[in-house]
Amino acid sequence: MKEVLFLNPVFQERIWGGNRLHEEFGYEIPSDKTGECWAISGHKNGEATIKNGEWKGESLAHLYANHPEFFGEKEKGQNFPLLVKVLDAKADLSVQVHPGDEYAQEFEGELGKTECWYVLDCQPNAKIVYGHNAKTKEELKTWIEEGKWSELLHEVPVQKGDFFYVPSGMVHAIGEGIMILEIQQSSDTTYRVYDYDRKDDAGNLRELHLKQALDVITVPCEYPVCKKVEEHTKGGVVTTLAEEHYFSVYRWDIDGIFHWQQKAPYTLVSIIDGAGRLIVDGTSYELQKGDHFLLPYDVTDTQWEGKFTAVLANNSQKRA
């Protein structure tokens, strides 16, 4: 095929959402309560479609299910394994946790949800909830029941460019005024632990999922360590943010002409700032902030030109 696949995002309205997805990226969003852009998604709750070329209008889910050769696989896949989002937290998100694969498959019928966050922008003094302070399950349960949130929750200040790896089982929450790029397993299962007694548009308290949360929260909390490695090369700087079980994530800062050969079966790319172009097999693709696309298996030799920043992800596999 040797064709770069650009994606049409799917937008999700959320009680905590805003309008920065339009202001920052120019997206046509459904309202000023838009919290999520599902930028590269094969999930049934928000299937992105191909924007260009032979497969224009087809869903990524259909392509993955019916053309495994595009993804370096020999057999048809069931569900595209990764999901890339842009989140606009105008208000605090709920304190939540996601299950691992085994629990999610047994009780939810889908993958677990390990994710990571790249902070695109944030207001001064922004912070996230990243983990908890309970030492035992009993202490965790007691503090939740008694509403001892200040004792329980571990808060971390954030700034633009920060990166956080959030494994399943970790309590977390994105704070007010933060915009992030999220790369995760393709799952839509979230268990709310606490939601600030917030009410929905109908005046009802939002549902909590305390039983499930207590089942899956890791106690004591385990904080992952991702080794950040910068490589300066002709045309740019490549920064490794994470190379983990479910995905590997990299940031590129391109300034000039950069040659790159794809080693993974496929790669997901999000342009988060600047502009440029990508040349593949003699075909030139214009790139701008807010573009999201997929490099299929047969796209190997690439040339990138311009001045831009991109975040790339793959599912940690190598070519056979």
TrEMBL record:
Zn(2+) binds at residues 98, 115, 172. Its EC number is 5.3.1.8. GO terms for molecular function: mannose-6-phosphate isomerase activity; zinc ion binding. The active site is at 192. It is an enzyme of class 5 (isomerase). Pfam families: MPI_cupin_dom (PF21621), PMI_typeI_cat (PF20511). GO terms for biological process: carbohydrate metabolic process. Residues 239-312 form the Mannose-6-phosphate isomerase cupin domain. This is Mannose-6-phosphate isomerase.
